């Protein structure tokens, strides 16, 4: 499943001097893969200038006991410990887990406020927001790769929105995963809470699994139109990440031969460039989504592909894409 995870470390590094804040990565232990601090550090040291990173929840390292609503505080404690290790300087100048996005079920309403306050106490220098995945699809294909199945219409749920209102009062952002047909629901949420920064994960995921060329082209058009509408909300930004996920239908995850950056860039470019065109570089940030995107490409080829795709961008645009937007949204100084 993760045959590309360590592929391509010998590729020459494109634009090696560009500082990168990896805006989206995970650390976890799963039956199929174990990927922890040392594993990510090894990837970071492979050549790209990863100055800092944002840890995003993976439903990992939960507390084994106590109230159900508080168990995911264990993940924040874990990530904060990793951040403290990196900040010590013992492992170099890579500020791994400099920002933390935790997990909470916002459907708990006012109870979420207690959780958020506790999270801020546990990681006051790093806790930046919450992610709750909303990915729901009418077909069964995506669920082969998803550990859970969020309910349909989660972002419109009154109970969810009762919890959501607690984010802005604490200066916290909201990350979410949606498939492209759900982007109108995300736009509605952004209208209802204009004071909350909402971060679309993984370019809004245009689902193209098990589709022929015509259906994929139609899906691309639907995705682009939905992204244009979401981008009209100034409180929404987007992560250029997750392109190694199987939901796009690119098929790289089924390959065992080495996949280099040029092949990745050819396939990913229409989605990356369209996303940046729609949102602008100052509302986009690059993320590896590692190790999950290791299904499709190694850490070095992944970043090389992203750099190659935007090779014609100005220096100011590249700075925004690779670190500036993440600095601002997640409040991470370099």
UniProtKB/TrEMBL annotation:
Residues 21-332 form the Amidohydrolase-related domain. SUPFAM superfamilies: Metallo-dependent hydrolases (SSF51556). InterPro entries: Amidohydro-rel, Metal_Hydrolase, Metallo-dep_Lactonases. Transmembrane segments: none annotated. GO terms for molecular function: hydrolase activity. Pfam families: Amidohydro_2 (PF04909). Belongs to the metallo-dependent hydrolases superfamily. This is Amidohydrolase-related domain-containing protein. It comes from Trinickia symbiotica.
């Amino acid at each position: 499943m993760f045959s590309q995870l360590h592929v391509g470390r010998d590729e020459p590094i494109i634009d090696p001097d560009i500082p990168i804040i990896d805006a989206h990565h995970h650390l976890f232990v799963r039956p199929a893969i174990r990927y922890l601090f040392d594993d990510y550090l090894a990837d970071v040291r492979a050549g790209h200038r990863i100055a800092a990173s944002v840890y995003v929840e993976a439903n990992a390292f939960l507390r084994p006991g106590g109230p159900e609503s508080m168990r995911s505080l264990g993940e924040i404690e874990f990530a904060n410990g990793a951040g403290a290790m990196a900040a010590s300087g013992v492992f170099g100048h890579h500020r791994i887990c400099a920002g933390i996005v935790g997990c909470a079920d916002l459907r708990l309403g006012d109870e979420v406020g207690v959780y958020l306050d506790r999270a801020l106490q546990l990681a006051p220098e790093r806790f930046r927001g919450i992610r709750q995945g909303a990915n729901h699809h009418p077909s069964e294909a995506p669920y082969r790769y998803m550990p859970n199945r969020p309910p349909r219409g989660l972002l419109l749920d009154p109970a969810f929105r009762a919890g959501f209102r607690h984010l802005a009062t604490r200066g916290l952002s909201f990350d979410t995963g949606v498939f492209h047909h759900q982007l109108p629901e995300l736009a509605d949420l952004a209208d209802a809470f204009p004071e909350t920064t909402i971060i679309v994960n993984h370019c809004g995921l245009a689902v193209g699994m098990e589709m022929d060329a015509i259906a994929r082209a139609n899906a691309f058009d639907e995705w682009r139109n939905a992204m244009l509408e979401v981008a009209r909300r100034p409180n929404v930004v987007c992560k250029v990440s997750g392109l190694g996920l199987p939901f796009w239908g690119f098929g790289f995850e089924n390959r065992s031969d080495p996949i280099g950056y040029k092949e990745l860039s050819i396939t990913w470019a229409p989605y990356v460039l369209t996303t940046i065109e729609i949102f602008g570089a100052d509302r986009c940030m690059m993320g590896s989504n590692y190790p999950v995107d290791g299904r499709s490409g190694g850490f070095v080829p992944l970043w090389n592909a992203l750099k190659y795709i935007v090779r014609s961008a100005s220096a100011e645009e590249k700075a925004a894409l690779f670190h500036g937007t993440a600095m601002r949204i997640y409040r991470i100084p370099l």
